[in-house]
Amino acid sequence: MKIEQIYTGCLAQGAYYITSGGEAAIIDPLRETQPYIERLKKDGVQLKYIFETHFHADFVSGHLDLSRKTNASIVYGPTAQTEFDAIIAEDQQIFEIGDVKIKVLHTPGHTLESSCYLLIDESGNETALFSGDTLFLGDVGRPDLAQKSADMTQNELAGLLYESLYHKILPLADEITVYPAHGAGSACGKNMQKETLDTLGNQKKTNYALNQKDKESFIKEVTDGLLPPPAYFGMNVMMNKKGYDSFDEVLSQGLQPLVPEQFEEIAEVSGALILDVRSNGRFAEGFIPQSVNIGLDGDFAPWVGALIVDVNQPILLVTEKGEEEEAVTRLSRVGFDKVLGFLEGGFDAWKKSGKETDAVHRISPEQFEKEIHQKEVKIIDIRRESEYNAEHIHEAYSKPLAYINEWLHTIEPEEHFYMHCGSGYRSTMAASILQARGYRNFTEIEGGFRAISLTSIPKSDFVCQTKILK
Questions:
Q1: 298 neighbors 280 (Cβ within 8 angstroms)
Q2: Does the residue 470 lie in any domain?
Q3: Do 80 and 159 belong to one domain?
Q4: Distance, CA of 311 to CA of 334 (rounded, Å)
Q5: At how many degrees (to 10) do helices 300-308 and 425-436 cross?
Q6: Contacts of 84 (CB under 8 A, 6+ apart)
Q7: Where is the domain boundary, 352, 375, 406?
Q8: Number of domains forming the structure of the chain
Q9: Is residue 227 packed enough to be buried (19+ CB in 10 Å), middle (13-18) or exposed (0-12)?
């Protein structure tokens, strides 16, 4: 028997590959199937089952393409309803893979169909729990995402989650290894640990949600402090339930090279968003007017979903040479399949063609230090509120990037402000969005708070001084 965790940092997501006796199972696969196909071929095994822990909201699973290419059966937990062929398992149902077994544990709460998969080894020992979004390391799945489809409140779903965890998971042996679907950085939880696997015994000791005195306290703790989910989550759920275009077709369409004239014409005719995925430094120096920057060198896919929102938005790509396929692949993971092509030769080709360009007004933290001491200034901090509360520039306002589509209309076009994030990655995104919407009354700080913290600019770490602009 072999268990392999295939972890994707950009999504903080874990897929699992299990082999035994010439057969294999994959749990919660990503959209692109070729890496799995290659593993199967290398190991000389036949994929028998594709297990889905639930209808994922934060990414589009590869279950359909993988099933088409391997003839493996797709398995969901009880109550799941799909528009494609799938085995809807019963609670406690056993599936055999070679010499091992997988038992379905129906654990509703995060969603109604949410299920964990308990691995029983060749000797009959319960050895691993693939816990999906039911149990994370340090946290549990948020119970607010399925309210509409379940016709239940988040408190009612949290109550179901309590029953699932306390009656089905906690009675399991301490030595069982827990393999969750997500780790730190995922929007599917609020308090996840950085580790990607642990023993159930250690989680029983350290996970706050597993140490509540009763259901009421559990509901209160689990629902407290939940941030609104990204808008694209609902669309990803529908794609996972109903189906989607083949990844191969999406990739073929997205990898259409376009010379500047073609690129410009398609942008005008289609209304496509020009998405520039270069680093924030390269983008700030020069870019195609109206384009939006979300760099591949960071949490690319989640930010695309948070900022672009509509998965049906046509997209044209500007990338560094050789990064086109990675960009299309990572977009498809969160359901953005309408990539119409990429700018052949990248931004350099656009410049050489003599077409109009734009740039971000960016200054160094040293220059910012001089200016802040010379005059009264307005400062916008677009980091998460938790980062701001930990430490921030004295008198800075908190406006998290995740909510830019809500707060940008509050900006006074004639009032200048300085803007920063943690390192420059997020503030360049914000700058590109602001300039695309016609705002040019700001200066972005290179290197973000990390660089600013090395200067003498006054800082504060008192939460009571938080200034949040609605």
A1: no
A2: no
A3: yes
A4: 8
A5: 30
A6: 64, 74, 242, 243
A7: 352
A8: 3
A9: middle
Token output for 358:
């734009």
Instruction: Name the least confident of 20-29, 146-155, 172-181, 205-214.
Output: 146-155
Q: The tokens of 435 are what?
A: 């300039």
* Tokens found for residue 28: 């919660």
Domain that holds residue 403: 362-465
Express each pLDDT in 277-289 by its tens digit.
999 999 999 999 9
CATH of the domain at 406: 3.40.250.10
Shared domain for 200 and 179, answered yes or no, is yes
Residue 186 included in any domain: yes
- Burial level of 83, CB count in 10 A (0-12/13-18/19+)? exposed
Q: Both 58 and 141 in a single domain?
A: yes
Contact 120, 129 (CB under 8 A): no
Residue 128 lies in a domain: yes
Q: What per-residue confidence (pLDDT) applies to 424?
A: 96
DSSP string, 176-216: PEEEESB-TT-TT-SS--S-S-EEHHHHHHH-GGGG-SSHH
Alpha carbon 225 to its chain centroid, in Å, reads: 19
pLDDT digits (tens, 9 = 90+) for 51-63: 999 999 999 999 9
Angle at 227 between CA 223 and CA 230, to 5 degrees: 125
